[in-house]
Amino acid sequence: MLETGIISGSNLSPFETAFEQARLLLETEGVAGIGAALALVETAPIETPGLTKILARSVSLLLDAFRSDPLAPEAYRAMAATPASLASQMFDLTLEGVFGNGERDVRAINQIGLLTLVGLLSSAGAHEQAALLLAQAREHRSGNPALTKAGWVARCRWAGCSAAFADHLEPAAVDFADAGAAQARVDTAPLDLVAHRGRIRFALEADDLEAADGFAGAALSLPVGDSDKMVLVPDLALLVAVHAASGDLAGIEADRLRWAFGVSPGIATAAAQAIEWRMGESGLPFLDTAEAERAATLLRSFVAPAKVPVITGYPMRDGKPHVDIVWLEITNHCNQKCTFCPDMFREDARTWLPLEKVKNLIDQLADTISVGSMQLNAYGEPLLHPNIAEILAYIRERKLPFPTFFTSHGMTLVDKKLQQLSGNYPAGIAISLHNDSQQSYEATRSHKIGDYETLVARVSALMRQMAFERAPSHLRLYQMVSNGAEDQRVDELTRSAFPDTAGRMAKHVRKWEAIAAEIAASAPREARARAVTNSDDAIHRAFTEASHGDRNHLPILIWVDADGMEQHAFMSARPVGTYANLLLEYDPRWAVERRLVTDNSCGFTATPSLAIFATGRLGICCLDLNSTATFGALDDFDTLHDALTSPEALRLFAQLANGVAASRGCQICLGGTERHCESKRLPRPTRPAGHFREGV
């Protein structure tokens, strides 16, 4: 710290000396020196030359601090040490820098400027203005941790209480030395609620509200009763109270915590009561009565009356549960055994849904569920269903309010199946093409079912029929590529079976472009079919940027359907590791980390999905081979609407959104996998006898 009088032998006035000392403090100590620097110039008249430069430099340092870290504790310490009289001037300087002479609209303020303005208003004692500015900002920036912290600090300064969460925790004995010890206990004993409480408390003591929210969601979602979770109530009550005081009850209403409280109704009620009790004891000085009432009311709203689900995992739209995509697995039979697919290791019995059951499900989906799209398979080859023709015809007759698709491995496209598809096309058909040669075919598919040229002929016949009949349906050809770093999750022979260079990919695409050109040349005039030739750059981009997200499609054939709409046949590249993690459970060279509590969440909770498996079980993931992550079965509920709005479905959403992997299938994705070192490595997985060439 610089002291008065360090600048000697000069003719500077006292104020000029103070300004120079303040300038040096800001230059040497940065944002940490703001409080001391401003204390030196606090008494200077506003018109004193040099004061504006000191204030402007202080504002610049605050902006830089928030730019580096939106939660910047050093910036908040600096603003807490800023004299009120100077804070108001710094606020005016910041406001002028943000808007100039333009209209002062809060939507035009970026996050850095907003955090600085709110902090300076609090430092100036303009607490109501700070609260109003934050409220206006939240209308356009919901769920922002930086704004939540800004609101919390501003509220505590207004209330004249500590802004450290730790100072508001109720005393409790925590049997862990630190956060790491609590985490280690959760890893080894995931149902230890005392350890979960330790994680929450340590996060709060570190002023990390976001981490505390995550730990709370995981603890509430554990597959244990509310009586076991009661130990969490005091800290959960504080967590909710902090959100309320910060003007961020929306953080509690966000799906993860809303679902978690929804599956723990006793805890939600007890936390509401705890907030009310602490308010009566003046134990929450930062919270006013109205905010406490709103927080308690919100918690009680999570408790559903009997038979009336207030909270559902699936979002409700016009009284209907909404599903982005439905996987209606009409059959789990498959007559292929592909090395990149785990279906060969299926443990569930092979079966199919009866025709009348499929029709009933289609009716329910159309009439009682809001659906984005439907796939006629999860695993399984849909064209093997004995009533596939009737199913497709029924879909066409029902004129469903959502599109329907299916994926086939292509070898089932015999003449009989092509006849069944004729006039009964879904909105789109996808073919798992993947192979580009006989060698590739033998390396990845069962030699009992045809060969590469047969695959090409059958897929070509489908493309020809769709173009000639002007099918109102697109055709996607999926193509695996080995386009990046060596993926150790996939065995070397399988990796080598797919295009591993852009040149090899181009050769494959050119072959299908030639097939498309021949079809276009012979198609009926009214189809207006035309072939497409892709540039080398487009093919290179599709190869190098291949992802599971399906981008950079390569069109090869276009026709005009009977309704006058253009339809496309196109190729979509996917990386060889797309389904790799699904095989690792059956690969002795790999270990699946069987963790109940993980750091990850399932994407199918953010984009709600429904898997209706051929076994009748209900889940949210199409990749769950043996349907282990389910919330019941069709026979457990009167209707699909009842199933999707059930407590069982909500529990699955709460768990997977909060990283609780209670099923075997989910632990593969959320828990993670690890390859054994050489000393532990075992032989490759045993594959079904007789299905692959020798050595494959």
From TrEMBL:
One Pfam family here: Radical_SAM
Molecular-function GO terms, alphabetical: catalytic activity; iron-sulfur cluster binding; metal ion binding
Stated name of the protein: MoaA/NifB/PqqE/SkfB family radical SAM enzyme
The protein's required cofactors: [4Fe-4S] cluster
Matches recorded under PANTHER family: PQQA PEPTIDE CYCLASE, RADICAL SAM DOMAIN PROTEIN
Domain of life: Bacteria
Keywords annotated in UniProt: Iron, Iron-sulfur, Metal-binding, S-adenosyl-L-methionine
Ranges for domain Radical SAM core: 329-456
Source species of the chain: Stakelama pacifica
Entry-linked SUPFAM superfamilies: Radical SAM enzymes
